[in-house]
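Chain A, query sequence.
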Amino acid sequence: MRTSGILMHISSLPSPGGIGTLGKEAYDFADFLQSAGFRIWQVLPVGPTGYGESPYQSSSVFAGNPLLISCSRLKEEGLLTFEAQEEYSPSDPEKVDYEEVRKNKSMLLRRCFKQSAGSLCPQIGQFRTEHPWVEDYALFTAVKEHFGGIMYSSWPERDIMHREPEAVRRYRSLLAEDVDFHIFCQFLFYQQWFALKKYCNDRNILLFGDMPIYVAEDSADTWTHPEIFQLDRNLIPKRVAGVPPDYFSEDGQLWGNPLYRWHLLRRRGYDWWVSRMKGMAAMYDMIRIDHFIGFANYYSVKHGMPNARKGKWVVGPGKDLFRVLSREIPGIRIVAEDLGCVNKRVKKLLDWCGYPGMKVLSFGFDSDETNPHFPSNYRSNTVAYTGTHDNDTVLGWAEKASESALAFAMKTMNFSSLEETPDAMIRYLFHGPCDTVIVPMQDILNLGGDARMNLPGTIGGNWLWRMKPDALTSELSMKYFTLNKETNRR
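Chain A, predicted structure.
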């Protein structure tokens, strides 16, 4: 079936409080998707943001980001009381100020905890039973706060750093209220998430999630399961993830994430991965696996290297892992982010799995028609994008593109001015052969480079963009309803 969707992260919604949330504006966006004929809502990872506020460096692969909890919804449900002036109001409604949002949201959620946790004890108890990971996540978060936010491998007390049983008991007792608070926040997040998911599914909208292949070094995941990562006795990574030098970067990209001990995971039946993917399959109707390449072969760099020039390719788990996942989670819908170093091993694994890969139209015009992202090379079992969260907006791309690249795009898609580029690319993809087309909201709105979500390799100034409150007009809805209908996407 031919479908279409919009990439719009929750934090980019125009909710009150300075950041997008799972409140009314999320429901309004779902209504817009339905009225405009879209079937898919793609979001970025929704876990607690990490270094540089990146959702791809989260402190947990299971937890939700408390900043995305809607305090307005809690107020409507009688769980929280506050005056309008107590909720943070940003000076710039199109950017997230994470420091101010975090300070204000923490204050309101702490109040909610004091006002309502007692009355919700049975539900929270059931949540703890159904989500056993939350105990370790909450303890990790509480201890990390206790030590001033430093990385857990630098905690001054080695016994809790290494999760010695007596230390775990001691800190669970010492920080019991903080642990309970963090569990309470996860309960609230999950309640709001699954209410939104039901609303979307009832309107034939699929939630499409994004899963980074790697976890953050400073995370509850590495603290709780150090044995499955390539860590030394001091819990420091021995080797880390990245990608080698290429056309875009002469030093490559040094991500710094700890690598997996795949041989150990294989002996354990990939138990941690099965748990992770079961959690994802419950939260989402579709899952994009970021850097799918790493399952076929992954780039390994010695810890402490200044860049990714000196690394080596290592064979990944390949088919073995996906046999287990397909057996344990039948019907799971996966999209493989296969951008980058796609060699024969990657192609063979992707073909064997049968998962759709990705194409990015704005990548397609910097050479000639042999470029894999040039539209004549697309096939039906592909998810096609105008761009992703890591790219400039289409209008931003057009403004910075070389004369030859822009001319090539104009000739291919039959348009004549720079300002027409977003609409031309969107229409071209919708009329194309790919079963699924996804467009970032910034391109739907014809926004320039100022609305870019992320510039890889940079810290600061990323993940900030928010949509204006009045952006979802009836004219915009009708425009895309017509386009979806004429291209038989539903």
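The mean pLDDT is 97. The longest helix spans residues 176-202.
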